[in-house]
Amino acid sequence: MVKKLESTLLNMAVVLTGVAVVMGGILAFVNHLTEGPIAQQKEKALADGIKAVIVSNDIVVAKTDTVRQTDAKGKELTYIIYQTNDAEGRYLGAAVESTTGGFGGDLKVLVGFAPDGKILGYTLLEHAETPGLGAKADKWFQRGAKGDIIGKTPAEPLTVKKDGGQVDAITASTITSRAFLLAVNNAYNAYKANGSTPATDGESGATKQVTK
Description:
This protein is an alpha+beta fold. It is about 35% helix and about 25% strand. It contains 3 helices and 6 strands. Strands 5-4-3-2-1-6 form a 6-stranded mixed beta sheet, with helices on both faces. Residues about 200-210 have low confidence and may be disordered.
């Protein structure tokens, strides 16, 4: 009886191990199949986002820089700056990727800046905020909306009215509003630290270390 039980348990263990191996193989295969399409979707979303925040369909990303800055808490933050020209080589400004911690997780924004530092547009690339509340940041700060920041220059940090600033916070989402505006302010600082000078075709992959 004991031997029969041991044999049964051994068979179950072998079967379960086999199932786990097969399932692992299937998951790895599916992951391999989806990696390419997911990467392509992200690239398209980024390309579309750059056009949206620079407010032009006629653009060329002529230079990509990476800027690293240290915040007040000593944490290193990384910003990717896409400097853009039009088809004739005229400098249009830059789109800056900036990430901060929101209410539900990381909040990644792409902000477009004109050569003089004014905000041209923005879009949310990633967020983990509460649907219907924090997620409203995608529209709340756009041109003509209640928290409109388009056309502003964050030389003086943008802050919500509750903190003495001039920007209306998203209703019932002050934490997300603060995180969003911090991401925009940080993007501006990275843009200015990188130098808002015309980009030149053929230059790419530059990395600048800036500590603030």
